[in-house]
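Weekly puzzle thread! Below is a chain. First person to post its structure in token form gets bragging rights.
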Amino acid sequence: MGAPPRSQSVVKGIIHCHSDLSYDCNMSLERLCTHLRQEGFSFVALTEHAKGVSEEDYQRYVSQCQSESNDSFVVVPGLEIRFDDGNEVAAIGVTKFVNGNVPCEVVSKIREQQGYSVWVHPLKRGRKLERFLDSDAVEVLNGKVDGTLCPNPFLLGCVRKENQDGRGRHAIFGLDLHDLEQSLDVWIECEVSALTARDVVDSLRNGTFVSCVANGTVPSSGELGIIADFRFKLLRIAWRMWNSLRRFAPLSLRGHLIRMSRPVVGRIKRGRRNHQSSALANTEHPSIGRAEGSLAKGRIGDKRKS
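Winning reply:
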């Protein structure tokens, strides 16, 4: 008889983070990992800018990621590659340096290493979606571009359309963390057999994860129920109106606007704590729990074949 199947567990982590290997971040990897451990996360998937990084730099960095990993916290190395047209793709879980200027070739190199490719912040700086990049996932919420309330409904719709047309894509949330002052209200819950970098990346590649914010979750397929879809769209409209109001308000009024928003922010924070306790319920220990939370409640995405 063969070995019995390994039980699946749910782990919570952050996707799309930077440390001081990136040219635009001054935070050490050690400090980042310490902070995330203290905040109760089990893994971080890093996406360091490839610009200015050599192959030797990256190999040292991969070794450092391994040193920072232990039984309760895993560091997944990765890169963020920018192309001449302004688009960027994250290479999560690659252990060898990847770079280039042709998106399909870069994605192919990522897949050769059994990594996971994510088209990050596709609409950054008002960029129009003229074509859909080949990638394993599309970042439908970026913490710096979209805030931390809800995903971009247009990008979610694009992912669903791609899947309907037979071009498998995952929807995923990325925090885009550059400093410890940023909110951590955007996270991922993965279903894994063990807490290792390989298991986390395999969970991403297989689509056995959900993307989470305080107000709900989105499966890797991007499919939502009518109520969840409507709620996210309302929140998106409110977020855009708030941003416009804050941007165009006189400086003398901005402080008042921020103070007025604090009760709402406090309510969202309380919602986040309640959601976390339900999504990661029945944990066996602080880092790994039985799959009885968001993933087990039928909100998991499709398990695509790699």
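Puzzle host: Confirmed. Bonus trivia for everyone else. The mean pLDDT is 84.
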